[in-house]
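User: Batch of two.

Assistant: Item 1 of 2:
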Amino acid sequence: MPRQFGEAAERLRRSTVRILTQGARSEGSGSGVIWSGDGTVVTNAHVVQEKAKVELWDGTPLRADVVERDPRRDLARLKVDVVNLPASSLRESASVQAGEEVMAIGNPLGFIGALTTGVVRGCGPVRGWDERDWIQASIRLAPGNSGGPLADSEGRVVGINTLVVSGRGGPLGLAVPSDTVADFLKRGARPALGVVVRPVANPPFRTALLVLDVASNSLADYASLKTGDLLISANGREFGSANDLGTALDISAGNVLKLRFLRGDRHVEREVSVALPGRRREMV
């Protein structure tokens, strides 16, 4: 590899941290990115729960506060009480194009600061799987890479590595774009209901959303939604896809979301109102 590439990789490695987590259900580890020198660390929401500890590139342990989580975009913001950390260089993900060489650094399978390289295959939703925007790259990722940086050949972070899916040419690594991270840090988490759903055909409705799981202490839990419920509309609008629920949550932020659903014999429609938190306003 060119010397410049190696130097960029080393700078990126120093901006990458190992995250050790402890939650009510499990313990684990992942990766994170020092986003700014004030102690802000970004990782995936699925990596951290209530508590976390950060280890710097040289093994220095630091206590981290989980400031905010956004399960819908799988992002989390941590804060460590140390300043002047080696912050990562950033690049707007909107400028990333297919064919670019990228690198990822993380802590997969116990290997600290492991480097892997690949090529961007596309940017945007993954057809037939998810309508969120992703940076899609042919790059080898493993458990422990989650939350770590995806960067260009100059070491500028363009995304947060999140998961691997099957693609036509083999496994694809998906990263949350850096522009999405910037929006999260500026405006806060999007409202989350706290359910895992799957679209199902349910005439006479366009689409129903089958509730597969309800997170403990979530808005859905407080609203007494249960696994097996069929969501059929939000604020009077029937669902065409699972993304319609996300749109309804965004539109209703700071207000009340009214959900209609079926339960049990699924012949009687029920309704529940959920008060949603608002998002931070942009400063102008």
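Item 2 of 2:
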Amino acid sequence: MSGASAAGRPIPHPASPIPRFRLGTQSWSYFPDWVGSFYPPRTQSADALGFYSQVFDTVEVNATFHALPRESTVRGWYERSTPDFTFALKFPREITHDAQLERPQVEAPTAELIRLARRLEDKCGPLLLQLPPSFARSPANRRALDAFLELIPEDVHLAIELRHPSWAEAAVERALAARNIAWVLVDGDQPNARSVLFPADFSYVRWNRSGLEMHGWSEVQYDRGADLDWWANVLLHAPEHVRTIYGYMSNEFAGHAPASLRMLCQRLGLPSVDPRERWPQGVLF
């Protein structure tokens, strides 16, 4: 695409207003790989979120996909993170993969996730609804999705990752726009990767697994510069109605998510924090 950077230089900004970016990783709990590469040496898991929130201003919480946490856990997240931090909570797999949105079995866990999300107060970001790749745009699945969306209050920011390629079309974009629901933009080894739709006034990006062989998560192992150039160009030229872009990097993108995000920020012309600048004195060696 035109406007791509060379050697990671920032891509020229378009004339239209630039949305606010909130960029983070898919979870903060990568132990032990991130200790000594992102987290200071000897960091304990209980202290990880507090440090993480000094470097990034958002995180995607993958833990809620596996099981809903206790309310005390959610409040702990709120209390341990810095002001102006946001959490994006992922819907449980019992809703998306096991029941595949069918009511009435999804009603109770959906209500509970929303209740917990509200306990994050001003730190509540979008909720991520990730459907399995087998969830095609069949009449039955369309009805199930439409009925499920009736459970989501209007003030909840919802982002949907529809991984079957049959969903990537203009009619779906119009339907999502009518409800201000974000289409999840994805980079990865799945059929719907890089389907670019911007139906809502916010966008949600996930840089997922690349399919490349990785050896741990402590350092970048592949040059994904051309891919980051492509994404920077797409995001800097998002439509004017997109006010905020949330983006979450996976380790599987290139080997070490924090470093990949810093490379992306450079291309977007955004400031970024070197985590070592936040390490206490005396732990550099």
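The chain has one domain: 20-278.
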